[in-house]
Predict the structure of Protein-tyrosine-phosphatase.
Amino acid sequence: MNILFVCTGNTCRSCMAEAIFNYINDNKDICSRSVGLSIVKGSVTSLNSAEIVKSKLGLDLTKRKAIQCSKDDIKNSNIILTMTSHMKDMLISAFPEEKEKIFSLNEYVGVKGDIIDPYGGTITFYEKTFFDLEKSIRLLLEKLKGDRV
């Protein structure tokens, strides 16, 4: 199973989500990737996102480059999880034939609200976003485990 996390620039939320998911996930049949809807070519993971991921997971994302979302990314993913309901609506509008597999992350796991973009915020704001993502991803893994039973 391929899970795709999507945010705006693929430098904060979705790359943290990918790192958290792949770090926590123990099922090798499920993998995740992340992309952005509107990346700046050549951009890398934001310094604060990289710092939080390094301190919490011990992973180095400082050289990770943002990836632009493509039609193949959408087509080749089993579940597509956006950071906001607006992004979900944008993807469904662009790929109506794939709408059954496009959700906001929090919607998919039964949590209200969106994952707020910390871009430009303090390290504390990035840390809150990390913990919000971690909570939702733990719920996601439980849901996926339940769906397999």
Remarks:
- The CA atoms of residues 9 and 39 lie 4 Å apart.
- The mean pLDDT is 97.
- Residues 123-148 form the longest helix (26 residues).
